[in-house]
Amino acid sequence: MLKLAWRNLVYQPIRLVVSVGGVALAVLLILLMDGIFAGSEEHTIIYIRNQPAPLWLMQSGVENMHMSSSILPSDAIERVRSVRGVQDAVGVLYANVGIEIDGTIIFSYIFGVAPNAPLGGPWSLVEGSPNPAANEIVIDRIIAERYGMSIGDSLQVMGYDLRIAGLTEGTFGMATSITFANKTAMALLMGVSPESASYILIQPEQDADLETLIADIQTAIPDANLLTKADFIASDQEMIRQMGADIVQMMNTISYVIGMLVIGITIYTATLERTQEYGVLKAIGAKPSQLLRLVLSQSLVSAALGYIVGVLAAYGLAIIVVRFVPEMPILLQPTRWILQAPILGFVAIVAALLPMAHIVQIDPLVAFKA
User: Fold this and answer.
1) Are residues 39 and 78 in the same domain?
2) Do 285 and 324 have their domain in common?
3) How many domains does the chain have?
4) Position 18 in a domain
5) Residues 6+ apart with CB under 8 A from 169
6) Residue 314: how many CB atoms within 10 A of its CB?
7) Is residue 49 part of a domain?
8) Is residue 131 part of a domain?
9) Which of 154, 189, 222 is the last residue of a domain?
10) What three-state secondary structure class fits 75?
11) What is the pLDDT of residues 97-141, one digit of tens each?
């Protein structure tokens, strides 16, 4: 039956292309919407993700970085460094402000980092220096290209002129960008001590027991909140979902439902269009069970081909979109689209079974007459 199903499909290639194309477009829609949501969510925690520090200390009551404000006491860094098992502790200042270029305000997460700090600075520098001086700043290369700027040009932050010292990559997204400034200069702009920190990135010693170290740090600095990197990322992602990503998730769900409906309708219609062929098979002695296997085989083959084409098209389109619209990250996760395969198969089977009652009852004479 599988061999017969394949011959029946390729006998009319245009019909096969339409069926496969309908499934592929639906799969493409589902994967792209899911990829946009996943990419946007990943970008919001990209700074935390790319810092090697496994422990993060922040102001008491603060559990995330996105849309938050945290300031630790000026002696917090030294108190952390004095804890046994801490290899290094680096404090960074953080603020949600706009950088102004030719009258245009670009919302940005600005991190104030001390020069040559082992943690907290840029992780992907493409040009210039990663250590901005007091009157310098490091921005994403896409912003520089978009506004025709380069190393040495100036922009404004909070009314102060800063010279571009370096360009990073992968720090610009739809909602915000990540910018790096000199910590001392940023402390002056924020009106806090240069020794203060919004967050302290903690690197344990290689042989340190993490659970013991966490307890010791919490004892040494009880008026602060200590999170592991994984917990910090999870907390930030949850905050993002609560603050507006639910809308994107709703759009993602709607696109998923629409996609599955399109797949179901495509398979259902393709099955009905072959009613005459099934009638001929019934006339020459095909049993209902054989017709059922034929219908399911054709539906699953069409769905499988459409699924493969849709996945390949999604990856191809994602590459094109990221190339020409880099602020729109699309993250296609293999585990996500692999999990769609059984659901797609189930939808294809249900859609193929719906017209089976009509196919089984068809009069072979009517099929021959048609």
Assistant:
1) no
2) yes
3) 2
4) yes
5) 124, 125, 126, 140, 141
6) 22
7) no
8) yes
9) 222
10) coil
11) 888 888 888 888 999 999 999 999 999 999 999 999 999 999 999
281-308 pLDDT, tens digit per residue, is: 776 776 777 777 777 887 888 888 889 9
**Residue 167 near residue 100 (C-beta atoms within 8 A):** no
Q: Taking all residues of the chain, what is their mean pLDDT, rounded to a whole number?
A: 85
146 and 91, same structural domain?
yes
* Spatial distance between the Cα atoms of 237 and 253, rounded to a whole number of angstroms: 18
Reading the block at residue 288, the tokens are: 């209902």
Q: Which domain holds residue 202?
A: 74-222
In the three-class reduction of DSSP (H, G, I as helix; E, B as strand; rest coil), residue 201 is classed as strand
Rounded to an integer, the average pLDDT of 156-166 is: 90
Top mean pLDDT of 12-16, 320-324, 326-330 is at 320-324
- CA dist 201 and 203 (Å) reads 7
Residue type at 163 in one-letter notation? R
Q: How confident is the model at residue 363 (pLDDT cuts 50, 70, 90)?
A: low
Query: Residue 310 contacts by C-beta under 8 Å, 6 or more apart in sequence?
Result: 23, 24, 25, 26, 27, 28, 30, 31
DSSP string, 235-296: HHHHHHIIIIIHHHHHHHHHHHHHHHHHHHHHHHHHHHTTHHHHHHHHHTT--HHHHHHHHH
**pLDDT tens digits for 28-86?**
888 888 888 788 778 888 999 999 999 999 999 999 888 788 999 889 999 999 999 99
Residue 15: partners with Cβ closer than 8 Å, 6 or more residues away: 270, 273
Number of H helices, E strands in the chain: 14, 10
The H-or-E segment that residue 57 falls in is strand 55-59
**DSSP structure string for 307-358:** HHHHHHHHHHHHHHHHHH-TTS-----HHHHHHHHHHHHHHHHHHHHTTHHH
